[in-house]
Amino acid sequence: MAKFTAEDRIQIVLRYVNGNEAMNEIAQEAKVSLSIVSGWIRLYEQQGIEAFQKKYTSYSLQFKMDVLNYMNETGTSSYDAAAIFNISSPRLIRNWRSKFEQGGIGALEQKKKGRPPMKKETKKIDSKKTIPAEGSVEALQKKIELLEMENAYLKKLNALVQLQEKLQTKSKRK
User: Fold this and answer.
1) What is the mean pLDDT of the chain?
2) Is the pTM of this model over 0.85?
3) Into how many domains does the chain fold?
4) For the CA atoms of the chain, what is the radius of gyration?
5) pLDDT for the residue 29
6) By the 8 A CB rule, do 36 and 13 touch?
7) Is residue 134 assigned to a domain?
8) Over the stretch 9-40, which tens digit does the pLDDT of each residue have?
9) How far apart are CA 130 and CA 122, in angstroms?
10) Could you report the per-residue pLDDT of 136-151, keeping only the tens digit for each?
11) What is the distance between the alpha carbons of residues 28 and 37, in angstroms, rounded to a whole number?
């Protein structure tokens, strides 16, 4: 199905409103389904030409519930409700209804879009992790631990260097 500009939609609707052609003839000529043309006509009858002007909006939870309640109370179809409330697509209303039936009112709430913001981690000093006083037992134990880690690192580095030298001498012999 081709995308129609606002002007195209208005011209199609006006052809029907002026009484020159039948709705199914217009739909066939425009290569669009009869239900879509019918929806455009309903929109025009309810809202006028302004209904076809593009507007990007997000609907509040209260608005969605008002539309669904109106449909339940009056027995209105999604096409008519879309025309009455100037909603871009009746399919959007059907999605709201199915979400509401499956997940309740919480499913209709707007969800944040996009990537979540990165949180900056703040460094907090816990009372348990206070810096030990120099010369205390804790400070000396910490220093011993650091020296042992450094010693282990240097041993592994030395072993790696010796292994690399052996490999180089073997490759030179061949």
Assistant:
1) 82
2) no
3) 3
4) 36
5) 81
6) no
7) no
8) 888 888 888 887 788 888 888 888 888 888 88
9) 16
10) 888 889 999 999 999 9
11) 10
For 44, residues 6+ apart whose C-beta sits below 8 A from its C-beta are 10, 13, 17, 51, 52
Which of 129-161 are b and which e, b meaning 16 or more Cβ less than 10 Å from the residue's Cβ?
A: eeeeeeeeeeeeeeeeeeeeeeeeeeeeeeeee
Q: Which domain holds residue 153?
A: 141-174
Amino acid at 86: N
The tokens for 112 are 């944040």
Q: How far apart are CA 98 and CA 109, in angstroms?
A: 13
**Single residue among 9, 26, 54 that ends a domain in this structure:** 54
Cα distance between residue 37 and residue 27, in whole Å: 6
pLDDT of residue 129 exceeding 70, the answer is no
106: tokens are 């919480």
What does the alpha-carbon distance between residue 82 and residue 95 come to, in Å, rounded to a whole number? 12
